[in-house]
């Protein structure tokens, strides 16, 4: 996308821009703020604490409900972030809640996958951790695992037998969801293969594959270690490779998250709602809002991963202006060769500085 900036200067009064920030490798590494992110984000609020610039977080990560993540991020950055400003890889899963409302679905990934799904409205969502615990010997190496998975029922009374919340052993799993980076890849590959090749009843052989939904397809992400770590895309490749060797039909799956263009369209819709708050100097509490949101002239995507954040912003259309930081996956001196960003900066602080100088 080629951009000329002259039109932005002539419209300096109107908040016709918004910002989407990637999280890992841009504002955080692990749980540590990076690149001057707390100060940079504060610049997007007025002194009275109301939102001045519509912005949100657009991450492929997840594992906890948006409401909880908003609180966590507010604490880390020292600004007031509302759940609407947190778009995670699994956020689109709430659109499946109606379809699978009363069906048994399993979810895996770090954090609390069952809680995420339950908050979206799934009434019979269960974590793979819990699901596997009802099947004796489903993981033949579990006794060699030094870590323990604490289940809610174990917290209450260690003596009581695990009582399934649903008729887990007889109920067919109707869909499987990978909501974030899986913790126990070996166990998850085994149990997901069991579910997917048996038509949702582990231990049986035949049955059509239930749908598999994966929150994102990042091969690698930055995290806290000096080199990138394997992400959900790597897990997907591992699961798919094994499944395709043990099963006649190739694995069918749908992955969400950046760089899919619908993620950016959805972000634009949410930013429009946030624009109403910022234009009317409102505190960030849900209300019906006033007036009509106007179209954005420019939407900025600030990301660290060329194949995910920048590729996605480029595909999303000319409104999107991509800014690549050097604090995460991308560490090059010049622009990325395959997915060049509209601008390359060292840190998110530099990105915000550039945007505010252009726009305000
Ligand atoms: O697991 C999270 C990682 O895949 C990506 O996070 O915030 O860089 O989109 P983010
Ligand atoms: Mg990132």
TrEMBL record:
Any one GO molecular-function label of the UniProt entry: hydrolase activity
Keywords, comma-separated and alphabetical: Hydrolase
Any single biological process term in GO: glycerophospholipid biosynthetic process
Cellular component per GO, a single term: mitochondrion
Protein origin, superkingdom: Eukaryota
InterPro entries: CDP-alcohol_PTase-I, HAD-like_sf, HAD-SF_hydro_IIA, HAD-SF_hydro_IIA_CECR5, HAD_sf
UniProt KW Protein transport keyword: no
Name the record gives this protein: HAD-superfamily hydrolase, subfamily IIA
């Amino acid at each position: 996308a080629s951009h000329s900036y002259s039109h932005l200067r002539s419209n300096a009064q109107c908040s016709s821009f918004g910002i989407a920030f990637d999280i890992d490798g841009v504002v955080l590494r692990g749980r540590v703020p990076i690149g001057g992110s707390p100060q940079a984000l504060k610049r997007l609020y007025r002194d009275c604490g109301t939102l001045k610039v519509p912005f949100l977080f657009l991450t492929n990560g997840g594992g906890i409900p948006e409401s909880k993540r908003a609180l966590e991020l507010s604490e880390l950055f020292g600004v007031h972030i509302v759940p609407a400003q947190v778009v995670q890889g699994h956020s689109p899963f709430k659109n499946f809640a109606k379809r699978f409302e009363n069906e048994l679905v399993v979810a895996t990934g770090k954090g609390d996958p069952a809680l995420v799904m339950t908050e979206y409205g799934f009434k019979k969502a269960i974590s793979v951790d819990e699901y596997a615990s009802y099947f004796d010997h489903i993981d033949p190496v579990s006794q060699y695992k030094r870590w323990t998975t604490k289940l809610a029922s174990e917290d209450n009374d260690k003596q009581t037998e695990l009582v399934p919340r649903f008729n887990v052993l007889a109920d067919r799993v109707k869909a499987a969801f990978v909501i974030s980076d899986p913790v126990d890849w070996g166990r998850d590959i085994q149990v997901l293969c069991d579910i997917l090749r048996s038509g949702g009843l582990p231990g049986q052989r035949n049955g059509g594959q239930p749908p598999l939904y994966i929150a994102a397809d990042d091969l690698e992400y930055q995290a806290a270690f000096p080199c990138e770590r394997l992400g959900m895309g790597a897990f997907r490749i591992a699961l798919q490779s094994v499944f395709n060797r043990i099963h006649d039909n190739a694995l069918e799956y749908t992955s969400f998250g950046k760089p899919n263009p619908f993620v950016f369209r959805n972000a634009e819709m949410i930013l429009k709602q946030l624009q109403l708050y910022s234009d009317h100097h409102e505190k960030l509490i849900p209300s019906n809002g006033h007036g009509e949101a106007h179209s954005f002239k420019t939407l900025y995507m600030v990301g660290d991963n060329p194949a995910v954040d920048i590729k996605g912003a480029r595909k999303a259309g000319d409104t999107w202006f991509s800014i690549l930081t050097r604090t995460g996956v991308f560490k090059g001196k010049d622009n990325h060769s395959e997915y060049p960003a509209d601008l390359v900066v060292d840190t998110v602080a530099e990105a915000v500085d550039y945007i505010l100088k252009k726009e305000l």
